[in-house]
Amino acid sequence: MRFFKRTWERLRHAYQNRHEPECVHVLADAYWRILLLTTALIVFVAVWYGFWQLMTITSGSAASSPVSTSAAPPILDREALESTVNGFSERRARYEFLIDNPPKVSDPR
Amino acid sequence: MRNFQETYLPWFILALAFAACGAVGYFAWSISDAEAARVSSEATALEEASKFEVDLRIRALARETREARDALESIARTEVISIVEAVEAAGDDAGVRFEILQVAAGTPIPAAAPEVPTIQPVNIVVTAQGTFPKLVHAATLLHALPLPSEVYQMQFERIPPEAGGSAGGWRFVVRVRVFTIAEISS
Questions:
Q1: Does residue A90 fall inside a structural domain?
Q2: Is the domain B78-180 a CATH 3.50.50.60 member?
Q3: Using CA atoms, how far apart are residues B149 and B180, in angstroms rounded to an integer?
Q4: Residue A97 within any structural domain of the chain
Q5: Domains in chain A: how many in total?
Q6: What's the DSSP call for residue A75?
Q7: In chain B, what residues touch A76 (CB-CB under 8 Å)?
Q8: Is the minimum CB–CB distance between A81 and chain B shorter than 8 Å?
Q9: In chain A, which stretches have pLDDT less than 70?
């Protein structure tokens, strides 16, 4: 905290006396350091952003690469088909059974 | 010479910086383009794979269910003549002579999809005379017809002797509805 305060005071003093060659040197030095810091920050952000984009693409393709097996609804239900056919077979068997085994009923008269 | 360097070198570096920015923009654009193309080709490949898989599944299903489908087709696509013969056969099996009073096509049941055949109800009115046990036997057989059918109305009535009926004579009227996908010509 003290370092920043002292630097700030130095810079302000240099700016107020910018016609002095020594102060111009201080200002130029500060300018150069700010430029370096900004450039380093930009490079760091660019690298971080690029890496993040690369990770996004990699994870996205990894997530979507397996062939989707969630298929469309089946157009034919095999069990329903077989149960229907079996139902008619049972009905035929019941018909054949009833031919030889009529129901025992008496005339209600 | 020194003046030349001092004057033009910054401009040259500025131009170089602009060129670098342009190059970065170009690379970003080309990478974005390549990414879009890759996503598109991946989606196309996935779609083709899914289509191929569905096609394979349908073929396998069609192969495995051929017998059941043929059986169901033969049951469902019963001609009207065969339906009437089946009804008459039920009377013969019960020892009763059926009289077919009416055979009429009902209101078609709309199909769920255009490629699904329309189901046509065939309404048949049958009457017969005989002893009560035989008529019940015949009615039971009509209930159990090996066709997609239902008995939706049944009426038994005793024939009085004065109306020409023998002792113990009964008459019944049965309305049967049989469903078919066969074409019915009007």
A1: no
A2: no
A3: 9
A4: no
A5: 1
A6: S
A7: 61, 65
A8: yes
A9: 60-74, 109
